Amino acid sequence: MSQNHPPIRTAVFPVAGMGTRFLPATKANPKEMLPIVDKPLIQYAAEEAVEAGIETLVFVTGRNKRSIPDHFDKAYELEHELEERGKTELLEQVRNIVPPNVTCVYVRQSDALGLGHAVACAHPIVRNEPFAVILADDLIESSNGGATRQMVEQYAEHGCSVLGVEEVPGDRTHQYGIIDPVKTGPRSWDVKGIVEKPDPDQAPSNVAVVGRYILTPRIFEMLATQKPGAGGEIQLTDAIARLLELERVTAFNFEGRRFDCGSKLGYLEATVELALNHPELKDDFAEYLRNR
Q: What is the pTM of this model?
């Protein structure tokens, strides 16, 4: 990694949302704890961060989210039971949800004031360092080192904020933050502007920001003075637009397949595709799908 740029050591996971699209399943259980086959969404996101070399995982939580810290905590009774029964493989899985060198920190977002506000809540832990933001709703399957790792490498090369993006159909721009892009490479752009959920006829492009960010600490200055935007919330997109006035921001279309697990259809697609890749299930599940 370049000596000129501090390393990315911290990832922020905004997990305070209510998950209303999955009610009643999320009435008492966080949407981030919904399983894809045999692992919850938040664990896939945490594993992606660890794969990128990140050492501190900051979970910005809200009400009814106790099961998230419980998931990453040590479970003495469960481990004892598995050990007594000789289930060593399951025991190792439970013990190694995060490696021992990785620290989990939990911060409470007391008011549901939006993604930008959630990121701002992590400032006391992140301090004056660049950091990653990972939205567990976007599960990204990648054989090329994981999306966050690819973006960390982009940051190491350029030393500025990196937005994870992908090109979307023109009629879906109203579902995303859309950038005004200037092409700089096969999978990269400089960001000249960014608009939150524009109508197709108002969108500057079809290059959409998805749930992965590498941000410089100056974003906290923007968030501290950011006025509420769409939906009366503090929008991270609006703060990034102001950051653009002060420093370079790039965009990177990482290699990998994204599943929008914030929607029921995307969640089902992820379940099917990851089950077809699961070492224990893939053959039997593929046969079931063929014969149903």
A: 0.91
